Amino acid sequence: MHTVWKGSISFGLVNIPVKLHAATENKDIKLRQLHKTCHTPISYKKVCEGCQKEVKDEDIVKAYEYAKNKFVVLDREELENLRKENQDKTVEIIDFVQLTEIDPIYFERTYFLSPDATGAKAYTLLRHTLEQSGKIGVAKITIRSKEQLAIVRVYQHALVMETIHYPDEVRNVRDVPNIPEEDTVGPKELKTALMLVDQLTTAFKPEKYTDDYRTALMALIEAKKSNRTVTPNEKHAPPDNVTDLMSALQASLDKTKKPAPRKRASKAKKNA
Q1: Over the range 243-255, which residues count as b (16 or more CB within 10 Å of their CB) and which as e?
Q2: In CA terms, which of 84, 124, 175, 267 is 20 to 30 Å from 59?
Q3: Domain spanning 5-26+83-169, CATH class
Q4: What is the CA radius of gyration of the chain?
Q5: Which of 29-43, 127-141, 188-202 is the most confident on average?
Q6: Whole-angstrom Cα distance, residue 25 to residue 230?
């Protein structure tokens, strides 16, 4: 597994040499853009809007646009010095909290943490400590010149680190348009909806869920590679429009109801 970062975890005076590995991968199918006429891949050039000329990498500087068409230019040396000042290779655990206290909206990306050769015992100690306490560690880490807020927790038999957003990166829910404030749902509708939730409640089994679009797209690609005809999958046909909320709930309930078990015939009837 590829190492994306190497450093240490610290909590109190305990220091654990660790490596960071991406815990998830993007399985999206990447499609290239081609010229329709000759099927040659399209390339992109960096062009200056003012000069209308192609610009080389060495002629490009970075800047912050603080107002429309007004920029503060930042030299590469300045950015490099700032990066070095904040390049601490330590996951510093600041606090310990309950996982349930952090809303999932804060979570960003997950990494596996593996111990370096000399850190196995301290790694195991932290893992057991988190398991026994039922807590997670809130930490800070710098990855690719960006200081990240993160949490350290136990996943199966390993430690994982999940980067999380800072509070000012989460937008205010009050800015979301058209959220209804008045309670317009009747008690009968709510009761039926709760019955539907109860019927659909099950244990979470992640292997049960698949990316149907990606599977269908790969099937289409493979079929076109071998010049086969592709037909749409009828089982994914969109449902009929149901405008009445109560009718939709009742239809959903009827769909999820398990068939009643057939009664066994009595012995007397069987022997008749």
Answers
A1: eeeeebbeebbee
A2: 84
A3: mainly beta
A4: 28
A5: 127-141
A6: 29
Our measurement of the distance from residue 102's CA atom to the centroid of its chain's CA atoms, rounded to an integer in Å, reads 15
Contacts with 127 (C-beta within 8 Å, 6 or more apart), sequence order: 154, 157, 158, 159
Dihedral pair phi/psi, residue 181, rounded to 5°? -100, -35
Residue type, 151: I
Sequence spans of domains, the chain: 5-26+83-169, 187-256
CA 86/CA 171 separation, integer angstroms: 26
- Which amino acid, residue 14? V
- Contact residues for 246 (Cβ-Cβ < 8 A; gap 6+): 188, 189, 192
8 A C-beta contact, residue 262 and residue 255: no
Under 8 Å between Cβ of 75 and 64: no
- Six-digit token string for 178: 């058209």
DSSP sequence for 9-64? EEETTEEEEEEEEE-----PPP---B-TTT-PBP----B-TTT-SB--GGG--EEE
Q: What is the tens place of the pLDDT at every residue in 116-163? A: 888 899 999 999 999 999 999 999 888 777 788 999 999 999 999 999
Going by C-alpha positions, the residue among 167, 169, 160, 147 that lies closest to residue 110 is 160
Q: Which helix (H) or strand (E) holds 72?
A: strand 70-74
CA 47, 52, 56, 62 dihedral sign is negative
Q: How many CB atoms lie within 10 A of CB 17?
A: 18
Q: Tokens at residue 29, please?
A: 């199918």
- What is the spatial distance between Cα 63 and Cα 59, in angstroms, rounded to a whole number? 13
**Rounded Cα–Cα distance for residues 51 and 139 (Å):** 46
